[in-house]
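Example with several molecule types.
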Amino acid sequence: MEERILKDGKVKNGSILKVDSFLNQQMDIGLFEEMASEFWRLFGECNVTKILTIEASGIGIACLVGQKFKCPVVFAKKNRTKNMSGDAFTAKVESFTHGQLYEIMVSKDYLHSSDRVLIIDDFLANGAALTGLISLVRDAGAFIVGAGIAIEKAFQPGGDAIRKQGIRVESLARIKSMSEDGRIEFC
Amino acid sequence: MEERILKDGKVKNGSILKVDSFLNQQMDIGLFEEMASEFWRLFGECNVTKILTIEASGIGIACLVGQKFKCPVVFAKKNRTKNMSGDAFTAKVESFTHGQLYEIMVSKDYLHSSDRVLIIDDFLANGAALTGLISLVRDAGAFIVGAGIAIEKAFQPGGDAIRKQGIRVESLARIKSMSEDGRIEFC
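Resulting C-alpha coordinates for the full complex:
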Protein backbone atom coordinates (compact mmCIF):
# COMPACT_ATOMS: atom_id res chain seq x y z
CA MET A 1 0.00 0.00 0.00
CA GLU A 2 2.84 2.39 0.91
CA GLU A 3 4.58 1.67 -2.41
CA ARG A 4 1.37 2.31 -4.31
CA ILE A 5 0.74 5.61 -2.49
CA LEU A 6 4.26 6.78 -3.39
CA LYS A 7 3.77 5.67 -7.02
CA ASP A 8 0.24 6.96 -7.72
CA GLY A 9 -0.89 9.12 -4.79
CA LYS A 10 -0.95 12.89 -5.19
CA VAL A 11 -0.77 15.46 -2.42
CA LYS A 12 -2.96 18.54 -2.80
CA ASN A 13 -2.47 21.66 -0.69
CA GLY A 14 -0.26 19.71 1.72
CA SER A 15 -3.25 18.09 3.47
CA ILE A 16 -5.36 16.16 0.94
CA LEU A 17 -4.08 12.87 -0.45
CA LYS A 18 -5.63 11.94 -3.79
CA VAL A 19 -5.65 8.19 -4.37
CA ASP A 20 -8.61 8.02 -6.72
CA SER A 21 -6.60 6.33 -9.47
CA PHE A 22 -6.52 3.05 -7.49
CA LEU A 23 -8.58 3.35 -4.31
CA ASN A 24 -11.64 5.55 -4.40
CA GLN A 25 -12.87 6.27 -7.89
CA GLN A 26 -10.97 3.86 -10.07
CA MET A 27 -10.45 0.69 -8.03
CA ASP A 28 -7.57 -1.75 -8.51
CA ILE A 29 -9.20 -5.05 -7.57
CA GLY A 30 -5.88 -6.93 -7.53
CA LEU A 31 -4.67 -4.47 -4.90
CA PHE A 32 -7.96 -4.90 -2.99
CA GLU A 33 -7.35 -8.69 -2.98
CA GLU A 34 -3.92 -8.14 -1.43
CA MET A 35 -5.42 -5.80 1.16
CA ALA A 36 -8.11 -8.37 1.99
CA SER A 37 -5.41 -11.04 2.45
CA GLU A 38 -3.58 -8.77 4.87
CA PHE A 39 -6.75 -8.06 6.88
CA TRP A 40 -7.37 -11.81 6.93
CA ARG A 41 -3.83 -12.33 8.31
CA LEU A 42 -4.53 -9.71 10.99
CA PHE A 43 -8.12 -10.57 11.94
CA GLY A 44 -8.68 -14.07 10.52
CA GLU A 45 -8.66 -15.75 13.96
CA CYS A 46 -11.22 -13.35 15.45
CA ASN A 47 -14.43 -15.17 14.44
CA VAL A 48 -15.75 -12.18 12.50
CA THR A 49 -19.43 -12.60 11.59
CA LYS A 50 -19.97 -9.30 9.76
CA ILE A 51 -18.01 -6.68 7.85
CA LEU A 52 -19.30 -3.12 8.30
CA THR A 53 -18.32 -0.19 6.08
CA ILE A 54 -19.73 3.12 4.88
CA GLU A 55 -20.74 4.25 1.41
CA ALA A 56 -19.28 4.86 -1.04
CA SER A 57 -15.56 4.23 -1.26
CA GLY A 58 -15.38 1.70 1.59
CA ILE A 59 -17.73 -0.72 -0.19
CA GLY A 60 -15.31 -2.14 -2.76
CA ILE A 61 -12.58 -2.99 -0.25
CA ALA A 62 -15.15 -4.35 2.23
CA CYS A 63 -16.61 -6.70 -0.41
CA LEU A 64 -13.21 -8.25 -1.13
CA VAL A 65 -12.64 -8.57 2.63
CA GLY A 66 -16.06 -10.22 3.01
CA GLN A 67 -15.09 -12.70 0.31
CA LYS A 68 -12.02 -13.66 2.37
CA PHE A 69 -13.93 -13.88 5.66
CA LYS A 70 -16.95 -15.59 4.02
CA CYS A 71 -19.41 -13.39 5.89
CA PRO A 72 -21.97 -10.74 4.88
CA VAL A 73 -20.91 -7.14 4.24
CA VAL A 74 -23.14 -4.30 5.43
CA PHE A 75 -22.69 -0.68 4.47
CA ALA A 76 -23.96 2.31 6.43
CA LYS A 77 -25.95 4.71 4.28
CA LYS A 78 -25.40 8.44 4.45
CA ASN A 79 -29.03 9.48 4.09
CA ARG A 80 -32.36 7.88 4.79
CA THR A 81 -34.00 6.93 1.50
CA LYS A 82 -37.55 6.07 0.53
CA ASN A 83 -36.54 2.40 0.27
CA MET A 84 -35.33 2.15 3.86
CA SER A 85 -38.06 1.30 6.28
CA GLY A 86 -38.43 0.19 9.85
CA ASP A 87 -35.99 0.90 12.60
CA ALA A 88 -32.38 1.77 12.03
CA PHE A 89 -29.30 2.53 14.10
CA THR A 90 -28.13 6.08 13.35
CA ALA A 91 -25.18 8.34 14.16
CA LYS A 92 -24.15 11.87 13.24
CA VAL A 93 -20.87 12.31 11.34
CA GLU A 94 -19.01 15.50 10.49
CA SER A 95 -17.14 15.05 7.22
CA PHE A 96 -13.63 16.45 6.91
CA THR A 97 -13.57 16.05 3.12
CA HIS A 98 -16.96 17.58 2.41
CA GLY A 99 -17.12 19.97 5.35
CA GLN A 100 -20.64 19.01 6.31
CA LEU A 101 -22.67 17.16 8.93
CA TYR A 102 -24.61 14.09 7.86
CA GLU A 103 -26.39 11.14 9.37
CA ILE A 104 -25.31 7.55 8.82
CA MET A 105 -27.62 4.62 9.31
CA VAL A 106 -27.86 0.84 9.21
CA SER A 107 -31.11 -1.08 9.37
CA LYS A 108 -31.55 -2.92 12.67
CA ASP A 109 -32.11 -6.07 10.59
CA TYR A 110 -28.41 -6.26 9.70
CA LEU A 111 -26.57 -5.69 13.00
CA HIS A 112 -27.33 -8.00 15.93
CA SER A 113 -26.04 -8.28 19.49
CA SER A 114 -24.53 -11.67 18.57
CA ASP A 115 -22.41 -10.16 15.76
CA ARG A 116 -18.63 -9.85 15.90
CA VAL A 117 -17.97 -6.90 13.60
CA LEU A 118 -14.88 -5.93 11.63
CA ILE A 119 -15.14 -2.34 10.42
CA ILE A 120 -13.43 -1.58 7.07
CA ASP A 121 -12.81 1.85 5.56
CA ASP A 122 -10.49 3.45 3.04
CA PHE A 123 -9.34 6.45 5.11
CA LEU A 124 -8.83 7.34 8.75
CA ALA A 125 -7.95 10.96 9.51
CA ASN A 126 -10.00 12.76 12.16
CA GLY A 127 -11.90 9.54 12.80
CA ALA A 128 -15.36 11.02 12.32
CA ALA A 129 -16.71 8.24 10.07
CA LEU A 130 -15.09 5.47 12.14
CA THR A 131 -16.46 6.95 15.38
CA GLY A 132 -19.92 6.97 13.79
CA LEU A 133 -19.59 3.33 12.70
CA ILE A 134 -18.38 2.30 16.19
CA SER A 135 -21.42 4.03 17.66
CA LEU A 136 -23.75 2.02 15.35
CA VAL A 137 -22.14 -1.27 16.41
CA ARG A 138 -22.39 -0.32 20.10
CA ASP A 139 -26.05 0.65 19.69
CA ALA A 140 -26.62 -2.84 18.28
CA GLY A 141 -24.90 -4.37 21.31
CA ALA A 142 -22.51 -6.18 18.97
CA PHE A 143 -18.79 -6.83 19.61
CA ILE A 144 -16.20 -4.73 17.76
CA VAL A 145 -13.36 -6.99 16.67
CA GLY A 146 -11.46 -4.01 15.30
CA ALA A 147 -11.08 -1.68 12.35
CA GLY A 148 -9.12 -2.34 9.17
CA ILE A 149 -8.11 0.85 7.37
CA ALA A 150 -6.37 1.25 4.02
CA ILE A 151 -4.70 4.61 4.70
CA GLU A 152 -4.35 6.38 8.04
CA LYS A 153 -3.22 9.98 8.25
CA ALA A 154 -1.35 9.42 11.49
CA PHE A 155 -0.65 13.17 11.83
CA GLN A 156 -4.37 13.67 12.43
CA PRO A 157 -5.85 12.63 15.77
CA GLY A 158 -8.50 10.03 14.80
CA GLY A 159 -6.47 6.82 14.97
CA ASP A 160 -4.88 7.49 18.35
CA ALA A 161 -8.15 8.66 19.90
CA ILE A 162 -9.92 5.47 18.83
CA ARG A 163 -7.02 3.21 19.93
CA LYS A 164 -7.20 4.90 23.35
CA GLN A 165 -10.76 3.60 23.66
CA GLY A 166 -9.26 0.10 23.52
CA ILE A 167 -10.33 -0.58 19.93
CA ARG A 168 -7.83 -2.41 17.73
CA VAL A 169 -7.12 -0.29 14.63
CA GLU A 170 -4.91 -1.78 11.88
CA SER A 171 -3.93 0.51 9.02
CA LEU A 172 -2.12 -0.81 5.95
CA ALA A 173 -0.32 2.51 5.43
CA ARG A 174 0.24 5.11 8.17
CA ILE A 175 1.26 8.52 6.90
CA LYS A 176 3.46 10.50 9.28
CA SER A 177 3.60 13.67 7.21
CA MET A 178 2.81 15.17 3.82
CA SER A 179 4.42 18.32 2.48
CA GLU A 180 3.30 21.06 0.09
CA ASP A 181 5.78 19.78 -2.52
CA GLY A 182 4.14 16.34 -2.49
CA ARG A 183 6.59 14.43 -0.33
CA ILE A 184 5.00 11.68 1.80
CA GLU A 185 6.63 10.13 4.87
CA PHE A 186 5.32 6.97 6.56
CA CYS A 187 5.43 6.05 10.26
CA MET B 1 -31.14 -14.52 -8.62
CA GLU B 2 -34.85 -15.23 -9.27
CA GLU B 3 -34.90 -17.84 -6.48
CA ARG B 4 -33.26 -15.43 -4.08
CA ILE B 5 -35.73 -12.64 -4.91
CA LEU B 6 -38.65 -15.00 -4.22
CA LYS B 7 -37.02 -16.13 -0.96
CA ASP B 8 -35.84 -12.80 0.50
CA GLY B 9 -37.26 -9.97 -1.62
CA LYS B 10 -40.16 -7.92 -0.28
CA VAL B 11 -42.67 -5.93 -2.32
CA LYS B 12 -43.75 -2.59 -0.90
CA ASN B 13 -46.79 -0.70 -2.20
CA GLY B 14 -46.84 -2.92 -5.28
CA SER B 15 -44.01 -1.02 -7.00
CA ILE B 16 -40.91 -1.06 -4.77
CA LEU B 17 -38.89 -4.26 -4.44
CA LYS B 18 -36.80 -4.39 -1.27
CA VAL B 19 -33.73 -6.60 -1.64
CA ASP B 20 -31.53 -4.92 0.94
CA SER B 21 -31.02 -8.14 2.89
CA PHE B 22 -28.73 -9.54 0.18
CA LEU B 23 -28.15 -6.92 -2.53
CA ASN B 24 -28.07 -3.29 -1.51
CA GLN B 25 -27.45 -2.81 2.16
CA GLN B 26 -26.39 -6.19 3.42
CA MET B 27 -24.46 -7.85 0.61
CA ASP B 28 -24.17 -11.61 0.08
CA ILE B 29 -20.69 -11.91 -1.43
CA GLY B 30 -21.18 -15.58 -2.37
CA LEU B 31 -24.18 -14.51 -4.45
CA PHE B 32 -22.13 -11.65 -5.96
CA GLU B 33 -19.49 -14.23 -7.00
CA GLU B 34 -22.17 -16.27 -8.78
CA MET B 35 -23.47 -13.13 -10.49
CA ALA B 36 -19.94 -12.22 -11.58
CA SER B 37 -19.49 -15.71 -13.04
CA GLU B 38 -22.68 -15.32 -15.03
CA PHE B 39 -21.60 -11.89 -16.38
CA TRP B 40 -18.27 -13.48 -17.29
CA ARG B 41 -20.14 -16.22 -19.19
CA LEU B 42 -22.15 -13.54 -21.03
CA PHE B 43 -19.44 -10.92 -21.69
CA GLY B 44 -16.16 -12.80 -21.13
CA GLU B 45 -15.29 -12.87 -24.86
CA CYS B 46 -15.87 -9.13 -25.34
CA ASN B 47 -12.37 -7.86 -24.43
CA VAL B 48 -13.70 -5.64 -21.65
CA THR B 49 -11.07 -3.17 -20.40
CA LYS B 50 -13.12 -1.39 -17.76
CA ILE B 51 -16.12 -1.96 -15.50
CA LEU B 52 -18.25 1.15 -14.88
CA THR B 53 -20.87 1.44 -12.15
CA ILE B 54 -22.49 4.10 -10.00
CA GLU B 55 -22.35 4.66 -6.26
CA ALA B 56 -23.38 3.22 -3.93
CA SER B 57 -25.09 -0.11 -4.36
CA GLY B 58 -23.54 -0.95 -7.74
CA ILE B 59 -19.99 -0.88 -6.36
CA GLY B 60 -19.99 -4.23 -4.55
CA ILE B 61 -21.26 -6.23 -7.52
CA ALA B 62 -18.95 -4.34 -9.90
CA CYS B 63 -15.89 -5.15 -7.78
CA LEU B 64 -16.60 -8.88 -7.91
CA VAL B 65 -17.16 -8.58 -11.67
CA GLY B 66 -13.86 -6.68 -12.01
CA GLN B 67 -12.13 -9.51 -10.15
CA LYS B 68 -13.45 -11.95 -12.76
CA PHE B 69 -12.56 -9.73 -15.74
CA LYS B 70 -9.20 -8.70 -14.21
CA CYS B 71 -9.74 -5.05 -15.13
CA PRO B 72 -10.18 -1.81 -13.17
CA VAL B 73 -13.58 -0.83 -11.81
CA VAL B 74 -14.65 2.82 -11.95
CA PHE B 75 -17.67 4.23 -10.18
CA ALA B 76 -19.53 7.39 -11.14
CA LYS B 77 -19.98 9.76 -8.22
CA LYS B 78 -23.28 11.43 -7.53
CA ASN B 79 -21.91 14.80 -6.45
CA ARG B 80 -18.75 16.73 -7.09
CA THR B 81 -16.61 16.70 -3.95
CA LYS B 82 -13.67 18.78 -2.78
CA ASN B 83 -11.33 15.87 -3.59
CA MET B 84 -12.33 15.70 -7.27
CA SER B 85 -10.30 17.99 -9.43
CA GLY B 86 -9.68 18.56 -13.08
CA ASP B 87 -12.04 17.71 -15.87
CA ALA B 88 -14.82 15.20 -15.57
CA PHE B 89 -17.52 13.69 -17.75
CA THR B 90 -20.92 14.55 -16.30
CA ALA B 91 -24.57 13.67 -16.90
CA LYS B 92 -27.89 14.55 -15.28
CA VAL B 93 -29.94 11.73 -13.77
CA GLU B 94 -33.47 11.81 -12.38
CA SER B 95 -33.82 9.26 -9.59
CA PHE B 96 -36.96 7.18 -9.40
CA THR B 97 -36.23 5.96 -5.87
CA HIS B 98 -35.32 9.31 -4.37
CA GLY B 99 -37.52 11.51 -6.56
CA GLN B 100 -34.77 14.02 -7.27
CA LEU B 101 -32.41 15.24 -9.99
CA TYR B 102 -28.69 14.81 -9.48
CA GLU B 103 -25.46 14.97 -11.45
CA ILE B 104 -23.19 11.99 -11.95
CA MET B 105 -19.55 12.31 -12.86
CA VAL B 106 -16.41 10.38 -13.68
CA SER B 107 -12.97 11.94 -13.90
CA LYS B 108 -11.66 12.09 -17.48
CA ASP B 109 -8.56 10.27 -16.19
CA TYR B 110 -10.51 7.00 -15.87
CA LEU B 111 -12.47 6.69 -19.13
CA HIS B 112 -10.57 6.74 -22.40
CA SER B 113 -11.57 6.45 -26.06
CA SER B 114 -9.66 3.14 -26.21
CA ASP B 115 -11.77 1.60 -23.42
CA ARG B 116 -14.28 -1.21 -23.94
CA VAL B 117 -16.71 -0.66 -21.10
CA LEU B 118 -19.07 -3.08 -19.36
CA ILE B 119 -21.62 -1.19 -17.26
CA ILE B 120 -22.80 -2.95 -14.07
CA ASP B 121 -25.69 -1.91 -11.84
CA ASP B 122 -28.02 -3.49 -9.32
CA PHE B 123 -31.34 -2.23 -10.70
CA LEU B 124 -32.83 -1.24 -14.04
CA ALA B 125 -36.32 0.28 -13.97
CA ASN B 126 -36.86 3.55 -15.80
CA GLY B 127 -33.27 3.45 -17.00
CA ALA B 128 -32.31 6.88 -15.71
CA ALA B 129 -29.04 5.86 -14.07
CA LEU B 130 -28.06 3.55 -16.95
CA THR B 131 -28.83 6.26 -19.52
CA GLY B 132 -26.58 8.63 -17.56
CA LEU B 133 -23.75 6.08 -17.46
CA ILE B 134 -24.10 5.42 -21.22
CA SER B 135 -23.84 9.16 -21.81
CA LEU B 136 -20.57 9.32 -19.79
CA VAL B 137 -19.06 6.48 -21.85
CA ARG B 138 -20.14 8.12 -25.12
CA ASP B 139 -18.66 11.45 -24.03
CA ALA B 140 -15.37 9.63 -23.47
CA GLY B 141 -15.58 8.17 -26.99
CA ALA B 142 -15.27 4.68 -25.49
CA PHE B 143 -17.05 1.54 -26.74
CA ILE B 144 -20.02 0.18 -24.76
CA VAL B 145 -19.77 -3.61 -24.66
CA GLY B 146 -23.10 -3.80 -22.84
CA ALA B 147 -24.80 -3.56 -19.48
CA GLY B 148 -25.04 -6.27 -16.84
CA ILE B 149 -27.93 -5.74 -14.44
CA ALA B 150 -28.86 -7.75 -11.33
CA ILE B 151 -32.61 -7.04 -11.37
CA GLU B 152 -34.64 -5.51 -14.18
CA LYS B 153 -38.19 -4.35 -13.60
CA ALA B 154 -39.27 -5.33 -17.10
CA PHE B 155 -42.70 -3.72 -16.59
CA GLN B 156 -40.98 -0.33 -16.56
CA PRO B 157 -39.68 1.10 -19.83
CA GLY B 158 -35.92 1.52 -19.21
CA GLY B 159 -34.61 -1.82 -20.44
CA ASP B 160 -36.53 -1.87 -23.71
CA ALA B 161 -35.71 1.76 -24.50
CA ILE B 162 -31.99 1.12 -24.05
CA ARG B 163 -32.05 -2.16 -26.03
CA LYS B 164 -33.74 -0.23 -28.87
CA GLN B 165 -30.61 1.96 -29.04
CA GLY B 166 -28.70 -1.20 -29.97
CA ILE B 167 -27.08 -1.64 -26.57
CA ARG B 168 -26.84 -5.18 -25.23
CA VAL B 169 -28.54 -5.36 -21.83
CA GLU B 170 -28.33 -8.62 -19.84
CA SER B 171 -30.37 -8.84 -16.64
CA LEU B 172 -29.99 -11.77 -14.25
CA ALA B 173 -33.63 -11.50 -13.16
CA ARG B 174 -36.39 -9.82 -15.20
CA ILE B 175 -39.54 -9.06 -13.25
CA LYS B 176 -42.71 -9.11 -15.32
CA SER B 177 -45.06 -7.99 -12.58
CA MET B 178 -45.34 -7.36 -8.86
CA SER B 179 -48.63 -7.22 -6.99
CA GLU B 180 -49.81 -5.41 -3.86
CA ASP B 181 -49.97 -8.74 -2.01
CA GLY B 182 -46.27 -9.35 -2.67
CA ARG B 183 -46.48 -11.82 -5.55
CA ILE B 184 -43.61 -11.54 -8.07
CA GLU B 185 -43.75 -12.93 -11.60
CA PHE B 186 -40.69 -13.23 -13.85
CA CYS B 187 -40.48 -12.88 -17.62
